[in-house]
Every structure is written in C-alpha cells, then in structure tokens.
Amino acid sequence: MRRSVFSIVVCASVVLGALALPTTTTAMCAESRSQFAGSKVDVQLMPEAEPGVNVLIVGARLPEGTALPAKVNLPLPEGASVFWAGEITGGAPEQDIQREFSILDGPFGRIIEFTAETTLSVQYDARYGAVRFSGQERTTELGWRQSVQIGELSMALRLPPGTQLLAPQVTRPPQTNQAGERLYTLDPLSIPEAQGTTLTVTYRTGVDPSTASAGIPIGVWLAAAIGVALLLLVLVVQRQRKATSSAEE
Which CA distances in Å does 128 have to 52, 86, 116, 162, 171? Predict the structure, then answer.
C-alpha cells in the first residue's frame, strides 16, 4: 500500500489501505502532556477516503531544540482507529518512519503516544466515523476534544473529486491536487484543554470538477459581483461627466 501526499498541507500524508498495525497498549488515567502547548496542530479530515469511511490525519512539529528521542502525545478523538503513526521525513511518503504507539486514557480523553527518534515532525493517520447519504448529499462529523494541551488547532477538509462543499462555509477558495481532490482550509481555533468542538461537514457529489466556485459561499461571490458592478458604474458616470463638461466648453 502507498501513502499519498497533498503537498499544500504540513504533514499531509495518508495511508489509503491497511499497513502492518503496530502493537498497541492501553493505559488508564494517563496524565496529559503538553509538548505542543505553544505549537500548531494540523487536523485534516478526508471524507470517504475509503468507501463510506473517513480518514483523519493529525500532524504537528515538536518545538525547535527538543532533544530526541522524545515522547509524543496528541489528542485522539473517540472512535478513531489509528493505522499509522510516526515521523515525517519531508521526502517521499515511503521514507516516513512508522513507530509503535500506545492509546492512553487521559483525564480529558484519549491520547496517542509514540516516540520520535529522528525528526521533529510527527503524525498519525486513523479511520474515523462514517458518512451519511441523502441523495447526492453527504454528511459527516468530527468530534474533537483537547485531551492534550496544544496551541493553535488548524483544521482542513479534503474532499473527493467531483464534490462541492456545502457546510461549513469557508472564505478562501479550495486548492486542488492532480487527483482532483479539493482541500478547504478553515479558520484556526484556540480551544482550552479539556474542551472540544464538533465539525459538521456536508457536501454534494456529482458536481462538475471544473466548477471554480465550489465551496465558496454564494454571498462572497455576490459581494464580489456587486463590488465590480459598482466600480463599473462609477467609471461610466465619471466618463459621462467628462463628456458633458467638454461639450459645454
């Protein structure tokens, strides 16, 4: 199996099939750690990365100067099934280093723990949740809880080709890779430890991939169109005034 990379996302690689699953253990009442208290954590949700199932990618970078090897602790949503965890080397996906991991029950929720030995960039990939179908519309949710103290939470949605994002609304246009997948970046969040958020995602299938406005709220496009129309009106009025002034002279 191979891991594919959406290069515009930090640490955005994902296993699209089963790999050898590392041995896992469960420790009750583990203390939450805070290596990422001042760092950004990237969370990317990929609806239907596998038929009817989502894939979740969570990546971060340990603070510069962190002595290696170092224990890594990251929040793990309830129901997420981790199938890869390790270090991101920055090269081809097959060069990333898989590490054994443990699933811990912390005081504020589940935590994944593993050891970084060679690089500060770390990541885990998990299967998470399912997609609900209603005609051409698809809906799924991500329940995120800060079981470990982190800094900024950066969320992104990576939708299959031929789809259009309906919710949540985003203000920035999506970026598209060679496979036709669209990446929508949401506004960053700052969530206190032990608190959480729920992201509800709705999208439509069977959309022309060339539709440039997919995922952008209609209000944004209307505002832009009105702005252009007003500008053109001002220019026309100014020209008419100049023409009238010249005729009078």
Answer: 10, 18, 24, 22, 26
Q: What string of H, E and C letters represents the secondary structure of 151-167?
A: CCEEEEEEECCCEEEEE
Q: Are residues 114 and 233 in the same domain?
A: no
* Domain at 69, CATH number: 2.60.40
pTM of the model: 0.75
Per the structure, the complete domain to which residue 132 belongs is given by 3-215
Q: Are residues 77 and 156 in the same domain?
A: yes
The pLDDT tens digits for 185-215 are 999 999 999 999 999 999 999 987 665 344 4
Residues 147 and 233 occupy one common structural domain: no
Residue partners of 210: CB distance under 8 A and separation at least 6: none
Q: pLDDT tens, 85-142?
A: 999 999 998 999 999 999 999 999 999 999 999 999 999 999 999 999 999 999 999 9
46: CB partners within 8 A, 6+ apart: 14, 54, 55, 56, 57, 157, 158
Count structural domains, the chain.
2
Angle at the Cα of 76 (from 72 to 77), degrees rounded to 5? 170
What distances in angstroms separate CA 72 from CA 30, 39, 148, one per listed residue? 13, 13, 11
222: Cβ contacts below 8 Å, ≥ 6 apart: none
Yes or no: say if 83 and 56 are a contact pair by the CB < 8 Å rule: no
What phi-psi label fits residue 122: left (phi over 0), alpha (psi between -120 and 50 degrees) or beta? Answer: beta
pLDDT of residue 218: 45
Residues 6+ apart with CB under 8 A from 48: 54, 131, 138, 160
